[in-house]
Amino acid sequence: xxxxxxxxxxxxxxxxxxxxxxxxxxxxxxxxxxxxxxxxxxxxxxxxxxxxxxxxxxxxxxxxxxxxxxxxxxxxxxxxxxxxxxxxxxxxxxxxxxxxxxxxxxxxxxxxxx
Length: 114
What we know:
- This protein has 114 residues and is mainly alpha-helical.
- The protein has six helices and no strands.
- α1 runs parallel beside α4 (75-84).
């Protein structure tokens, strides 16, 4: 792998991490408790993700500590959370017509997926 490819991967990784952190912050603020998120995933999956989230912290690759279970969520989890709790996460669309709301939700979910 060339240095420019390595740099591009680093930039992409950092961008995804910023995106993930911003969305998790918003999800945490809107949903308040992790119980709603827990409903979407098995206990085993949550435990596995917590374990995976601890590994880079144990090896000092990531200096920040886990503050709560939201910190164990990855970008892969965001789609299901937005799909299930769209109304709570995007209250600005609550007064939209049904078709407009569905269109907005589809657009956001497409963006999250991409």
